[in-house]
From TrEMBL, chains A, B:
<protein>
    <recommendedName>
        <fullName>Phosphate acyltransferase</fullName>
        <ecNumber>2.3.1.274</ecNumber>
    </recommendedName>
</protein>
<comment type="function">
    <text>Catalyzes the reversible formation of acyl-phosphate (acyl-PO(4)) from acyl-[acyl-carrier-protein] (acyl-ACP). This enzyme utilizes acyl-ACP as fatty acyl donor, but not acyl-CoA.</text>
</comment>
<keyword id="KW-0594">Phospholipid biosynthesis</keyword>
<comment type="similarity">
    <text>Belongs to the PlsX family.</text>
</comment>
<dbReference type="GO" id="GO:0005737">
    <property type="term" value="C:cytoplasm"/>
</dbReference>
<keyword id="KW-0443">Lipid metabolism</keyword>
<comment type="pathway">
    <text>Lipid metabolism; phospholipid metabolism.</text>
</comment>
<dbReference type="GO" id="GO:0043811">
    <property type="term" value="F:phosphate:acyl-[acyl carrier protein] acyltransferase activity"/>
</dbReference>
<dbReference type="GO" id="GO:0006633">
    <property type="term" value="P:fatty acid biosynthetic process"/>
</dbReference>
<keyword id="KW-0444">Lipid biosynthesis</keyword>
<keyword id="KW-0012">Acyltransferase</keyword>
<dbReference type="InterPro" id="IPR003664">
    <property type="entry name" value="FA_synthesis"/>
</dbReference>
<keyword id="KW-0808">Transferase</keyword>
<comment type="subunit">
    <text>Homodimer. Probably interacts with PlsY.</text>
</comment>
<keyword id="KW-1208">Phospholipid metabolism</keyword>
<dbReference type="InterPro" id="IPR012281">
    <property type="entry name" value="Phospholipid_synth_PlsX-like"/>
</dbReference>
<dbReference type="Pfam" id="PF02504">
    <property type="entry name" value="FA_synthesis"/>
</dbReference>
Amino acid sequence: MSESRPVALDAMGGDHAPHEIVAGAVHAVRERGLPVVLVGSPRVLYEALADHDATKEIPIVRAEEALEMDEGALASLRRPRSSIAIACHLVRRGDACAVVSAGSTAGIVTTGRLRLKGQQGVLRPAIAVDLPTLPAPAVLLDAGANAEVKPEMLVQFAHLGATYAELAHGIEDPKVGLLTIGSEAEKGDKLVRRAHELLQGSPGITFAGNVEGHDLLTGKVDVITTDGFTGNVALKTMEGAVRYAFAELRQAISESRLARLGAAMQRSRLRELHRRLDAEAHGGAVLLGLNGTVVIAHGASRAQGISAACRLAADLSAAGVVNAIGERMAATSRSHRLWWSSHGGDRLE
Amino acid sequence: MSESRPVALDAMGGDHAPHEIVAGAVHAVRERGLPVVLVGSPRVLYEALADHDATKEIPIVRAEEALEMDEGALASLRRPRSSIAIACHLVRRGDACAVVSAGSTAGIVTTGRLRLKGQQGVLRPAIAVDLPTLPAPAVLLDAGANAEVKPEMLVQFAHLGATYAELAHGIEDPKVGLLTIGSEAEKGDKLVRRAHELLQGSPGITFAGNVEGHDLLTGKVDVITTDGFTGNVALKTMEGAVRYAFAELRQAISESRLARLGAAMQRSRLRELHRRLDAEAHGGAVLLGLNGTVVIAHGASRAQGISAACRLAADLSAAGVVNAIGERMAATSRSHRLWWSSHGGDRLE
């Protein structure tokens, strides 16, 4: 809340860039009182801001290039002056508190690793998403930054996720679950069997054991650690299934006149519910483990989603998530090293 | 339909064994006209049948042992006289047309592989499940038989699933999708990138490219091939998400009196809908690639679910799914071998 540096908003990334991104910046500034700088093509952004009469409220930082949504991770290397790269640069220089982008996830992850670098002791940054459980969201990570991981990374994801759950959701001593295909320790593939061993008794982690796909939305654990391939498939499957259930329901409701009457009565509650399930409304995913706060908004985000992502980014920065992760990594690294080596873990770094 | 051999029903497997299993057998015999033999402890089963006045309608085959739900796959080796092993034996001897069990999936898979053996040319049997898409179900496999696979196995799962989609759902030339985390060919981990190469232009397969988690319920493809780890996580995540959406909905509906009225009006349609989404109602998963038809009913199955599983098993047996897979494997094996070796694929078996 005491943060006065602006959020660096990548104005060129996203399905509805730049217009919905600019509209989101205007919303964040006017409705939420958050300082924002737009990063992108000055001419285009100036015109878009003019549509909102906001050319004097929101500064623009020039970036002549942009990563296309369908460009692979390698494009990040070829475009040191892309809008996302410049946004990272602003954070690195201390001119912005956090980055928000609705651009391609692979592009954001690669550019973030390149420009902000991983925090000391962090093997790989991971994408954390909030699942709509009650009373607090459960944190799932990695949701797609790392398709291939080592068991030690799943332990680190647990640390990253636990720090985030503590800071963002106020959960003390978060319970960590390992996503796999059976609740017994010996279930799963080699990766998760080894990760299970490492997590068990791992210092600083409250390991609650294996969890399965149907546990993700029950609130059984506060943090779910998994590789980016499985996590991404699970997240998208969940979104698809909720969308499916609602579509089916909508059809069931509108099919008879009596039913339509019932639907009208329920409309207000259903609208509320839909909003809570909507991935966009709570701002986006967070890339944890870099020297800077990075929020990845949904590619399809419109103004409201972008504004919510700016709120999330500013809050995480104000809460000091990067420092908290740094301290946790430093505090556990010695005991981890000892513990891992005594359990035959590979030495990484 | 011309099948007159009974279904061999493992009466000792499942959360509600033996009573709900026996009740399911009685339902299958009386309501569906399907011949069934119960496999398990004669004393226990005789008593359970007596409760239904059915001791003369349904034969019992003795099995003195049973696999516990929480026993690992190795227990199958230690228990050659378990109810699931005896049920497989009846199929192998030609005394039953198919096996149905609601026991532990790992136990069924291991026992099935051991007692029925894999079909010639099949590297690994796979568990196929129907997803509730329209107009026809989409087939997802492997849903959990193989946590670790090779790329070539994903191609074979495509063949197994396509045969099943043709026979069970009447789909000509089924479209096959590969489950991964991006629609472009280069997305995913090493396994799926290699499988993508192999599937492309693979003889006998209509490959529709990569699919993601949110495509599973849209009916975009008819068959989804994936490893058993990812498939199991996706399936359980989907079940959990649909359950979650309904629980949220139910709560939204009952919270006010007006809403309750609306709910009453919709009750019949909602019930219908729930049934279609309910994994149990359509019988269960099918273990494909063995020398015999094996249906894995949901562990929590009650009588109706068991009866539906018996129907599915008898129908698949009558449709000749084992022969159809055998023919497809024989027909494609030569062209596959040539094609694989020219594309640098590993030679397996």
